[in-house]
Design brief:
Blueprint lengths: L2 E8 L8 E8 L2 E6 L6 H8 L7 E6 L2 E2 L3 H9 L1 E4 L11 H11 L5 H14 L15 H13 L5 E5 L7 H14 L4 E5 L3 H7 L2 E6 L2 E7 H6 L5 E4 L11 E8 L2 E7 L8 E2 L4 H14 L1
Helix pairs in contact: 3-4, 4-5
Length: 290
């Protein structure tokens, strides 16, 4: 599905605009959606799902305006959505819950719904628990049920908000691989604070900041924002200068080593190849200065 957002603004009474004149065309494939808390990511995702309507501007999916109720209904049937907080019905088993979701998505044939449910339970690693009540599941297991329901009905547009939150490293890798495979022939929007998930799966990234577009383009381009500006330093002589941005710190037997982004590094700093996290930090610094 091709998603087009044209000069979209969303106002909430008594608050700054959640989205402020956002324009973007989202291509088919895996798309990383990045931004700090309050940047407008959740509002944008809810808008694409047809839950929230823009105050101004237009959102189109495959050229159809989501302002039309019939279009919203059609898109919802072709949509897989995993919100940040998902709470599947505790008295149902995973198979029963997925069967119910399949009915809501218009998968009319019972045999087809049950086949999909079994396949998805297997894909998210819950086959051994498929007949247990969800109410007894751990938080990570419930998250996997949420992932499976988002994929029910073989959706053409998939929107996932913090999908790997609460998953252990092995589960994160499994789900990243699953999403990457799905993104080959459909649009998958991945919103997350775990930048490594985006770096590993998304060739395209869209960054929001305070409701406005901060970056829109190839993931490699965002990484390049920190090229020649990323350093490692071990400031034993005193605190770091105020003009540097600390990306992370690592404690070693010799002391603390800092990974920083700065145009002018400390004298003892050595250059390193930038990561997506470095590029995101560099973008944040540049926007604060502008």
């Amino acid at each position: 599905m091709y998603v087009s957002i044209d000069h979209v603004t969303k106002d909430f009474r008594g608050k700054p605009a959640a989205l402020d004149d956002v324009t973007i065309d989202l291509p088919t494939g895996m798309i990383g959606l990045l931004g700090s808390n309050g940047a407008g990511k959740t509002t944008l995702m809810r808008m694409l799902c047809g839950i929230v309507q823009p105050t101004r501007g237009t959102v189109r999916v495959d050229g159809r305006d989501l302002a039309d109720r019939r279009v919203r209904q059609a898109v919802r049937k072709a949509l897989g959505y995993l919100p940040q907080h998902v709470d599947p019905y505790p008295n149902l088993t995973p198979l029963e819950f997925l069967d119910y979701v399949g009915i809501l998505k218009g998968v009319d044939r019972r045999a087809a719904r049950r086949r999909q449910a079994r396949e998805l339970v297997e894909r998210v690693g819950l086959a051994d628990a498929q007949d247990r009540r969800i109410g007894g599941f751990s938080g990570g297991m419930r998250r996997r049920v949420g992932i499976a329901q988002a994929l029910m009905g073989d959706p053409e547009l998939i929107i996932v908000d913090e999908p790997t939150a609460g998953l252990d490293p092995e589960e994160r890798v499994r789900f990243r691989t699953l999403l990457a495979g799905l993104g080959a022939d459909r649009t998958v929007i991945l919103s997350t604070h775990i930048l490594d998930d985006v770096a590993q799966t998304c060739p395209y990234v869209f960054v929001l900041g305070r409701g406005r577009t901060r970056y829109d383009g190839p993931t490699s381009g965002l990484i390049d924002a920190a090229r020649g500006r990323t350093w490692l330093t071990d400031p034993r002589g005193g605190p770091l200068p105020e003009h540097v941005a600390v990306v992370n710190a690592t404690t070693t037997p010799e002391g603390t080593q800092y990974r920083i982004v700065a145009d002018t590094p400390p004298d003892d700093a050595s250059p390193v190849e930038p990561s997506l996290e470095d590029g995101y930090m560099a973008l944040t610094i540049d926007k604060e200065r502008s």
